[in-house]
Specification:
Structural class: mainly alpha
Shape: globular
Order of helices and strands: EHHHHHE
Largest sheet: 2 strands, antiparallel
Number of strands: 2
Distance between the termini: 7 Å
Radius of gyration: 20 Å
Length: 161
């Protein structure tokens, strides 16, 4: 048995940018595909969620209603987490403070989510609304935190010969 070797695989920024572009296109195509199959219903704001949780705590809201109201919010957040992580990794520069990378990622994420909502006004039916765009921004922020953690943590794979 030999000594374990450490192999480091560096992913070029161009590959990250390409992955971000492909993911962005896939997300837009998914929204387009869902047009006519899924419809925009009244979305849940943060105030609505807090009110539902309070009513749930006193027993006037069943668990299924809580889940039904929170599921679209969770979906909106989860939909944008990978995008936020890739965007953070694509926008990060060594000469920038990390707060600038966060701000750029959040600004571009807000613009992308807003463009998706605005674009849907031209489609036969809408899948997302402005409240969804706000929850998408939460997903971008969580993804950006994940991208930042990925830059701070070195992942290495050891192989043995």
């Amino acid at each position: 048995m030999g000594k374990a070797q450490i192999k480091v695989i560096r992913v070029p920024r161009a590959v990250t940018v390409l992955a971000l572009v492909v993911l962005t296109a896939a997300m837009a195509l998914l929204v387009f595909y869902l047009t006519g199959r899924a419809y925009l219903h009244e979305r849940t704001s943060l105030v609505d969620i807090i009110a539902i949780i309070r009513r749930y705590d006193v027993g006037s809201v069943p668990p299924t209603a809580l889940i039904a109201n929170f599921a679209p919010v969770l979906t909106n957040i989860l939909f944008f987490i990978p995008w936020g992580a890739l965007a953070f990794l694509a926008f990060d520069r060594a000469r920038w403070p990390r707060i600038v990378t966060y701000l750029v990622t959040l600004a571009v994420g807000a613009a992308f989510a807003s463009v998706l909502v605005a674009w849907q006004t031209q489609l036969p039916t809408r899948v997302t609304g402005w409240t969804d765009a706000a929850w998408n921004l939460v997903g971008v922020a969580i993804g950006a935190i994940g991208g930042h953690l990925r830059k701070r943590v070195q992942v290495r794979f050891a192989t043995t010969r």
